[in-house]
Amino acid sequence: MSSFKKQIPEFKKLIDYHLKIVLSESDQSSEALCQAMGYSVMNGGKRIRPMMMLASAIAMDIDTKDVIPFAIAIELLHSFSLIHDDLPCMDDDSLRRGQPTTHIKFGEATATLAADSLQSLAFELMAKAEFPESKSSQLELISMIANSIGSEGMAGGQSLDLDSENKKLDPLSVENIYMLKTGKLLQASILGPTYFKDLDEEKFSALQSFSESIGVAFQIQDDLIEAEGDANTIGKSVESDKSKNKAAYPILFGINESRKRVDNLYESACASLKVFGKSSSSLMDMAEIIIHRKL
To answer: What pTM was estimated for this model as a whole?
Structure first.
């Protein structure tokens, strides 16, 4: 087992520890709002995105302590997005991580406010973080993360996803949606550490290619888990995409083609990291975890 894999349990504990501190220190005027925020964030997440940022930092020989505030912020943004995704006006899901979704537990209004609060808390955390490099690099990093969740990223992808219901799209269009709604925030996690240290163009391009391949593979794998009916692994209803006739890869192109595409994307992602040599092991480990969902 690689040194990074051995560290994963401790890294997860560290991430959860910092999440609890950030949530406890945020000033909420409403007890219900506070509870909804904590419920949404601390409800059994795998912490893939912050773990990916730590893995990227290790590959670049950057102190993980420096990136922790940004890794935590990205998990808060991920949690905010899940609350929105589950709302009746969006995907209308009643289960998340095997538990009632936030709006089922606390009501739609409180859930929406909890999501809004998590988003603002994430940016407050990043703005206040101590940054070892220049302040301008910190602002550029925050700007990049903001872009990943806006109309050119997650929100834009979710809009296209909603518009794709009852439509038959080609593979390229589906993968574009996946890259925006899922891949962009994962890519921000991977590229985040590049703002802490100068990286040559070859290695930066390699990280970009890796993030694009693994981001799309992540979402197709999610669709496969849902299509094959494994609610325990995915933690939500396995009929969600099918019942809405969404443009999901397995629904449009079949299980076998979806598996082949995941395998090809995984191979492509790993091949991208060759320029990093042995130092890429942490990212390779995370790529394997994303494909096999064992974390």
So the answer is: 0.92
